[in-house]
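tool_call: predict_structure(chain=1)
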Amino acid sequence: MAEKIRLGIIGANTQKGWAPRSHLPAIVASPEFELTAVCTTRQESADESAKKYGARLAFDDYHKLLDHPDIDAVAVVLRVPSHYEPTVAALNAGKHVYTEWPLGRTTEEAVEMADLARSKGVQTLVGLQARAAPGILYAKELVDTGYVGQVMSCHVSLIREGGLQRTSDRTWQRDDSLGANTLTIACGHTIDALRFVLGDFGHVSTVVSTQAKQWLDTDTQQMLDVTSPDNILVSGRLASGGVASVHIASNPWAGSGYRMEIYGRDGTLTVSSEDSPQLNEVKLQGTKGSNNLEDLEIPGKYTNVLEGMPSGSPFNVGQMYYRFGESIRTGKTWEPNFDTAVDLHHFIDDIRRSSEQGREVEVGRA
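tool_result:
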């Protein structure tokens, strides 16, 4: 392997999507990696991306990227329905792979990819980047070391505004079967952060609801039918014994952002942000033995990226690339990896199952 890990990004469009918002600026600021190759569906846009971000290779076919001998690792940054084929191809080519969340359109796809990665002996990472966010890491340390004592209850909410109209390039998400919606993405990221900090649920009772039955396509001015959920309610008992409730929603106006409240026998801890914890910097407040919350400073030990890493969406993705680089260099498995993703896919299936059956279900017992 070269001095720097040579990375190819599949889905490196410069104009729209998650790659220009996060992966491309993050990888440019990551000293462990060289952005060696970019791939889009058109050679013109691939050349544009290579020029803008300094990649020396540009492809319009990911198979050509995977065949190139100078590629050590691959990031798959595409729409969810398109994750499966390039990820499987990259694994079969013996590449280390970082695929965005959700790993697959279905749990079955995710299980197949995780099994294949294990058989190939390569390192994987999945884009559940809240687990690399300094504030979430510190919240976990505080809970683990007894800051709040025995956890009695927790409430998490993420309420975003929107959900009545979209541009044509985003209306595809109205189809629940394509695997990219409020349940899988907003709820997936947010509830994964809760489970990372407090541990898994033992039982859940849920409501998965589609309140906005149609969206306006603002480009065509057509009303489109929607099957994707936009409001998810989860309540249950944590495996540790505490109780927890979650409300994740895309509602029309004036969303309230993100907040996780953890109440223990000895204290209270809150984590808050304007948006999902994987996207934005979070603020921590806490108290032990009083009713006055105070700001908590997040220790610098949880920041692995250099000062040049852009703030906002690229920051936690940069934190993830640090982990990806460490796993490739050392052979040590870091989370969140493909196995982490499979576990979360199964939990989302439990959320659906409880809602569809109208009853409390035991987690992990389909």
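agent: The mean pLDDT is 96. Proceeding to next step.
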